Amino acid sequence: MIVNIISLCYLVAVVLFIVGIRWMAHPDTARKGNLTALWGMVLAIAAAFFTPGLENIVLILVAMVIGTAVGLWMAQSVQMTAMPQMVSFFNGMGGASAALIGLVEYGGLPGHEIGRGSVLMASVILGSVSFSGSLVAMGKLQGVLKDIRVNKVLGFMLLLSAIALAGYVLTADAAHPALVYAVVLISLLYGLAFVYPIGGADMPVVISLLNALTGVTAATTGVLYDNKVMLMGGILVGSAGLLLTLLMAKAMNRSVLDILFKSFGSASGAAATGVAGDQTVREINQYDTAILLSYAKKVVVVPGYGLAVAQAQHIVHDLEKALAEKGVELIYGIHPVAGRMPGHMNVLLAESDVSYDLLVEMDNVNPQLPSTDVVMVIGANDVVNPAANDDPSSPIYGMPIIEVSKAKNVIVIKRGMSAGYAGIENPLFFLENTKMLFGDAKKVLTGLVAEVKNM
Amino acid sequence: MENLLSYLGESQDAIYIFILATFVGIEVIAKVPTVLHTPLMSGSNALSGVVIVGSVIVLGKADPTNYMTLALGFLAVLLATLNVVGGFAVTHRMLGMFKKRDNTRKP
């Protein structure tokens, strides 16, 4: 009886998951979708509590209370700019949990159950990789960890040896029980070797992939328990993450394999020398910029990660309002991979009440650029680098960009002349219609708003 | 080998679900606009916290005298809860901004 009720609850939970994700894919129903999925999860957890023969209830509740408190606190206190890191962190926790489940189950595994054992080892390996990989991705986004070149062959060897060792542990007659911890250790190392060499600019793709990986891990754990809600939920996440990964890679005109196995860093030496000829940079001051903006008909703002770092999303909205009063049309040109995650800029600008209609995607903004008077590039670099169009030796050659150089004037707000996150020189800065406005984005924009209002 | 094959035979249901769910996942998400990529990634991340069901079962069935198992299981529940709660809360926060945008858009 109780078993059937539990199964029914799991079934309803799965339906809620699917409907929830479906709703999450449309702006009008997204909130409802998230809450629907949440209710599905609550139902699934509640049902799990009635699993026959369940003990240690108090311990489970204590762990949940601590997890809930810490999770809520972290989610509430994180700044919008650090959201991608947060997602990566939570993703890693899910992976770690799956790996731990695998470890515990291994202890209770009767000898020579190859089928069940393989699924279990898959959970342990995938979960560990997802855990360490997510934490490295988080550290890189946070700027704590730098790019380190790791030999791809070495990384691959790590993965192979983890699988081989897992195979040995499962089949050998007298494998030492502690060897399973060696599998965990090697998998953790592989996670590090996997994410460490990947360039920061590619992090969104990696996070998306790791997210899919955790989903698959949850699904393998589901197979272990013959638990349909874990299986379905995990696979849903797996295919969602994989699809997002492909969409992202497509936006950068690179294959996922290229991103994972050929890091940007390896080719940047050639690119740095690729910029030839006139290297003069033209500077502009705030006052001149304000004049240029106030007398323009149409302005396009191209935001990037620098906008997020400077927390300048509110002030750019103020500038938009100040210009609107003068009859200047301002729109935002959003590159799909601007920032550190797909849609990062949309979230950031939505936070400061920028109207959804003003956010124009790359493919729609590019045809408008020749008739644009001023393009203002705020904290973006690689996504406006013309080398992607005309320098075959550039590592980002072939990536679609926002073609800002087609506009009449380009103003680049930047702290200094350093290269972008991909570590590539940007010939845009040396073009004749480009002017550099050096300074912190927030300070510069605040000054601009004041100047524009005084015009 | 025979062992593995018979396990595959026993797990047929799971394999069918695996395949069908993959297509459901792709279909359901296929038409998502760029604006929602980040919230969706965050939301699906929260859903991957469904391992919490497994962690509850693991800890619930752990031998109360085996402290190692208890500790690992406890940690598994805690981390999975972190994934679920944090994931949904962060997604809710992100989507809250979209709601605000809708309100300002209407007048």
Please characterize this protein's 3D structure.
The complex is a heterodimer of chains A (455) and B (107). In chain A, 60% of the residues lie in helices and 7% in strands. Chain A is α/β, with parallel strands linked by helices. Chain A folds into two domains: 180 residues, no CATH class; 180 residues, 3-Layer(aba) Sandwich (Rossmann fold). The termini of chain A are far apart. In chain B, helix 3 runs antiparallel to helix 5 and helix 4 runs antiparallel to helix 5. Chain B has five helices and no strands. Chain B is mainly alpha-helical. Classes of the chains: A alpha/beta (455), B mainly alpha (107). The interface between A and B is large, with 117 and 88 residues.
Secondary-structure topology with pairs:
The complex is a heterodimer of chains A (455) and B (107).
Chain A: H1 2-24, H2 30-49, H3 57-77, H4 83-107, H5 114-142, H6 152-171, H7 179-195, H8 203-225, H9 228-251, H10 256-261, H11 268-274, H12 286-294, E1 298-303, H13 305-309, H14 313-325, E2 329-334, H15 344-351, E3 359-361, H16 362-365, E4 374-378, H17 387-390, E5 409-414, E6 434-438, H18 441-454
Parallel strand pairs in A: 1-2, 1-4, 2-3, 4-5, 5-6
Chain B: H1 2-10, H2 12-29, H3 37-47, H4 51-60, H5 67-105
Helix pairs in contact in B: 3-5, 4-5
